[in-house]
Amino acid sequence: MSAGELGRIHTEVVACRACPRLVSWREEVAREKVPRFADQEYWGRPVPGFGDPSARVMILGLAPAAHGGNRTGRIFTGDRSGDFLFASLHRCGRANQPTSVAPDDGLRLSGVYVTAVNRCAPPGNKPTPQERDTCLPYLEREIAALHELRVVVALGSFAWDGALRALASAGGVIRPKPHFGHGAEAAVGRLTMLGCFHPSQQNTFTGKLTPEMLDDVIGRALSLAARPSGP
User: Fold this and answer.
1) Residue-wise DSSP of the chain
2) What does each C-alpha distance from 141 to 168, 205, 218 come to in angstroms?
3) Mean pLDDT for the stretch of residues 214-225
4) Residue 162 and residue 36: Cα distance in Å, rounded?
5) Which of 4, 57, 217, 219 would suit a FRET pair with 95, their CA atoms being 20 to 30 Å apart?
6) Cα separation of 20 and 219, whole Å?
7) What is the CA radius of gyration of the chain?
8) Which of 206, 226, 212, 199 is nearest to 85 (CA)?
9) In angstroms, what CA-CA distances link 103 with 62, 108, 136, 216?
10) What domains does the chain contain, in order, with CATH numbers?
11) pLDDT digits (tens, 9 = 90+) for 90-142
12) For the whole model, what pTM was predicted?
């Protein structure tokens, strides 16, 4: 059962201490905090993916935010990027509410699974190539466990590259390597990859990514996912 395997991955992710630099950073952030969250207890551990075990669409980010997922314990939860993402999933009918502030806030996703290439908050939002590769087996296993998966939406070029690497391990190699771009599409084995600018404040505050642009990508992902699978 996919739910059982996802549960095992969840347990292993939360206990992981494989990358000393990331362990040190995530725990330092959780210990020192920032003034606006000084009264909160931080998660300070790796952050697993979450969502519908029957998902046909995966939303793939870079890594947890230092004061978002690293604080709350759920990816894209408690930060501005998550606010932007879950509002879009709600508009598209795949989230039961438009906001996400804590793991127990009642958020439920339908047909969608949300995860990241790296599971620990990295300094400067920049994991090293070694840290990326150390974490990739978790993503590979999630993709394998999501038996109904049809589409991977990569939020940013790091997620795009991470998804390609994860899919290549399962034999989904395509040449030439498809380039990331907002709205880019690439067929990789049984899956379709879609590129989308990351919903970071740098992109949303400047208008590089608008709500309409994100809705269009998610709508396209849902349309592709609804198509009958091949023989």
Assistant:
1) -HHHHHHHHHHHHHH----HHHHHHHHHHHHH--GGGTTS----S----EE-TT-SEEEEES---TTTHHHHSSTT-SSHHHHHHHHHHHHTTSBSSS---STTS---BSSEEEEES-SSPPGGG---HHHHHHHHHHHHHHHHH-TT--EEEEESHHHHHHHHHHHHTTT---SSPPPP-TT-EEEETTEEEEEE----HHHHTTTSS-HHHHHHHHHHHHHHHTSPP--
2) 13, 34, 23
3) 98
4) 32
5) 4
6) 39
7) 16
8) 199
9) 19, 10, 24, 27
10) 2-225 (3.40.470.10)
11) 999 999 999 999 999 999 999 999 999 999 999 999 999 999 999 999 999 99
12) 0.95
Place of tokens 């989904």: 172
What pLDDT is attached to residue 169? 82
Q: In this structure, what token pair is assigned to residue 44?
A: 């300070």
